[in-house]
Design a protein that fits this description.
alpha/beta; Rossmann fold; 2 domains; 4-stranded parallel beta sheet; 12 helices; 42% helix; transport
């Protein structure tokens, strides 16, 4: 009897001793919920919510997300990144909407030695001490624009005019066009720019039309990207019009209306998931994403931006499992380093926009499987051969 009492007492004592708990994986997410890039930032946030609904735990551990709004301001993007790292002690950063904002955030992440997954395209940034810290889910702009130039070349077009943003995204688009057009013997005869906050692009459009190009390429995204589309339609332009992946959104279609008909855009496979062959591994993940999006947000996705942040979640989940296998604990500097190494050792992670394989020399991680060409027809995206 005394032995039984002793065993029960020992058991009670063991139960009363606090068990060492694994810290949650802490994700700092920055996006533009307000400001001129909110048409991208709000979908980005919905994509993260879809990721949490699809995969709520990583390696059996809970994941906690701290989300901050940068108001579409690059200064706020960097400030939020610092706050998340220095005050909240996050293990990884994900963000943000817009190329200038993401570049500012990435620069801060590198300085603080925290791994980051960029969900907007950015130009190369210095890797920092010991190697790179930032990967991105959007396809590299040159890969997307190559699809445009290939289409132009197939149609025998010889000249093209460009009209796009004055910021880093516009530069990415134009520089990529310049690079691909040169090798295809296609001449760029106009380069017009406008700010995202502009309310009119009449002067730029008049100059573009006056140059008499065989085709026009657009370097704007979201709702501001609709301005030149509408202006060109009002001035009777009937030639080929090429857009970009930033025009795959309900907001763009709503604002551009019938003027968008005929625009050819390079984009990721998720845009036309149902039109992909079942043998394509991306189709299943893309359809799973749509189901998770509806579960998390109560509506179907109508954009491409949310899928970039969803893919960021998948990439994080894969890398975090391998980082934890190293024995590093979330919340520690060692875990950040292990997570960074794991990110750049990612192999064949199937997402909605592509299949990701990162290396220290390749922050994009995707190949031609991440690009399809679609044409806008009455508010829908038709897959082109």
């Amino acid at each position: 009897m005394n032995l039984i009492r002793s065993l029960l007492a020992s058991a009670a004592l063991l139960l009363a001793v606090p068990q060492a708990a694994q810290a949650d994986i802490l994700v700092g997410f920055v996006t533009g919920l307000s400001g001129p890039v909110s048409s991208i930032g709000i979908p980005n946030a919905k994509g993260i919510a879809a990721g949490q609904a699809y995969l709520g735990e990583i390696g059996g551990e809970k994941v906690r997300v701290i989300q901050l709004d940068d108001g579409s301001d690059p200064t706020a993007s960097a400030r939020n990144a610092r706050k998340l790292v220095e005050q909240e002690k996050v293990d990884v950063l994900i963000g943000t909407s817009g190329a200038p904002q993401t570049l500012a955030m990435a620069t801060a992440a590198i300085e603080m030695k925290v791994p980051m997954i960029a969900v907007s395209p950015i130009a190369p940034v210095p890797p920092g001490d010991g190697g790179p810290w930032v990967v991105q889910t959007p396809q590299p702009t040159p890969l997307l624009v190559q699809g445009i130039v290939d289409n132009m070349k197939a149609k025998g077009l010889k000249t093209v005019a460009f009209i796009g943003f004055t910021d880093a995204f516009g530069d990415l688009m134009y520089n990529s066009l310049e690079q691909s057009a040169k090798t295809a013997d296609i001449k760029i005869i106009a380069n017009e720019r406008y700010a995202r906050s502009d309310s009119s692009v009449t002067a730029q459009v008049l100059r573009v039309v006056a140059s008499h190009p065989d085709a026009i390429m657009l370097g704007g995204t979201g709702t501001p990207g609709a301005l030149p589309v509408i202006a060109l339609s009002e001035r009777g332009y009937k030639g080929p019009l090429y857009g970009n992946h930033g025009m795959i959104s309900a907001d763009f279609l709503r604002l551009a209306g019938k003027a968008a008909n005929g625009i050819i855009c390079p984009t990721g496979p998720v845009t036309a998931a149902e039109q992909l062959p079942p043998s394509n591994p991306i189709q299943k993940v893309a359809l799973d994403f749509r189901a998770a999006f509806e579960k998390a947000n109560g509506e179907a996705p109508t954009d491409s931006f949310s899928s970039y942040s969803f893919d960021g979640w998948l990439v994080l989940a894969d890398a975090a499992k391998r980082a934890m296998a190293s024995g590093a604990k979330p919340g520690s500097p060692e875990f950040r380093v292990a997570l960074r190494h794991a990110l750049f050792a990612t192999k064949e992670v199937v997402g909605t926009q592509g299949v990701y394989t990162y290396t220290p020399a390749d922050r994009h991680g995707v190949d031609d499987r991440s690009r399809i060409m679609v044409q806008i027809e009455d508010g829908k995206y038709k897959l082109l051969p």
